[in-house]
Task: inverse folding
């Protein structure tokens, strides 16, 4: 686990690259727990972070899921921007973990399809 804490918006890009480029990391569960008010007050955009997560996920072939904690506004804010970057947004960690497991199982089954002997 890596906790970016309050420096999230300043260090996100560098941290994300370091984490996803690590060969020991197979996936990213991004937990976003920033209150609504600072995002509104400082007009903090989330789209650059979503875009970068999507690009790195595609490039490195590692799944990324975001789990959002906070008000309905925060969840809707993420949902409004995440669809174009194809990043699943969850409101519960248990659902995010199940989704990662499903993605993993799906990738294994796809790899095994190539190992089916011809009849």
Result:
């Amino acid at each position: 686990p890596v906790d970016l804490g309050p420096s999230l918006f300043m260090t996100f890009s560098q941290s994300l690259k370091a984490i996803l480029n690590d060969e020991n990391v197979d996936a990213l569960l991004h937990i976003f727990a920033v209150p609504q008010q600072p995002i509104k007050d400082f007009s903090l955009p989330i789209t650059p972070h979503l875009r970068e997560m999507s690009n790195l996920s595609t490039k490195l072939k590692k799944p990324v899921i975001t789990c959002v904690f906070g008000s309905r506004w925060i969840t809707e804010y993420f949902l409004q921007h995440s669809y174009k970057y194809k990043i699943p947004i969850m409101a519960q960690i248990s659902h995010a973990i199940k989704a990662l497991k499903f993605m993993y199982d799906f990738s294994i089954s796809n790899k095994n399809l190539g190992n089916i002997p011809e009849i």
